[in-house]
Amino acid sequence: MLRHILLVCSTLLLMFAITGCKNDSQTNSSSGAGNTATIIEGNWYKRYTGTIAGQPVVVNMYCYTVDSNTYAGGTYYYIGKSELLGISVKNDPLLKNELHIKEWITSNHNDETPDSLVNTWAITIDGPNATGKFTNGATKKMFDINLHEDYTNASQLKMVYYSKNATLKEPRWTAGANAEYTGIEVEGDGNEAINNLLLHALGDDSGNVKTLQSLPKFWVEKQLEHTTALLDEVGKDSLEEEPMDDYHNDLLVTPVYNDHNFLVVECMTSEYSGGAHSNHASNFVTIDRQEKKRIQLGDVLKVDSAMISGLLDIKARAVFHIQPNEKLDDNLLVAAVPATDNFIITDKGLTFCYSPYEIASYADGDVWLFIPYSQLKPLLLPAFTQRMGLKL
21: which of 49, 228, 278, 287 is 20 to 30 A away, CA to CA? Predict the structure, then answer.
């Protein structure tokens, strides 16, 4: 699942802190970077439209590089026909001019599909075009992929990265501390208001940061100050043993949906401040480029909490294999799944997202529950239905 892949990537990135030195690094790259190279490198975002097996699709693909390590992924969907699908992107180890892509259903909780049954792509990027083959994991049948860059009713984005390392010294041990910011900026003239909405959504309420471009450095330094202050307060008295990992704070902001002038981004925070494991949470932010505002659930539908909760309960039972005669809270942390403003707009429906401990245990990870628009039809606002071109 996309969120688990991203968490693994961010955790690996945070392990690059070097004990005993301090280092600042920052990279920026526009969406057009690397247009003529199939090999994944650098920092970029591309939005493609076209067809897979003759069916119209929209693909969001991004890449970011830290030191010599590159991570790439994204989402895609069949227009009006499928929920959001995740993709992981790698350079093909055998065919140097191809990218190898695996996909999965983002709301398929703890997907354990064998690799041999996973749908895969093999594509070549040539300028604004991406072509190749799609292989159905179950049938092994192959179909054509024909994509081209297209930002109609969508945002052109660039990926940015900033990090800083430090050394923490306590009487009994020395450990590294690291903070990393990987995010996006909206490119093009007239997008200052959109970037300001993202700036506010990412949590700067201090007024010290005036632009989204200034946020990475400010956020990283603020997190390191927080970690140092925390250890200064408790370390000398209570932290006798060396921590299991370097202390870290990470923010990873990636595009999830970019269509109909809606931009949905996942803001995933990860923190390790001692203990057996790090903690993480994902917050989804939807920006309406047309109206220049952040979208809440009430902008999409009439918030009937009881009806929405009922639909979410049914979905949760299916996802966690909970029988009708079993109580929900015999398996989860809640007796009923609440509606949440943490959601993703897609062409086919809404995905409601819950971080660890919200409705399920840490071991269950993030939980995404997809509800199609057909089930939400009585609640959908006419303006949203028209904007999305829904025919229900």
Answer: 278
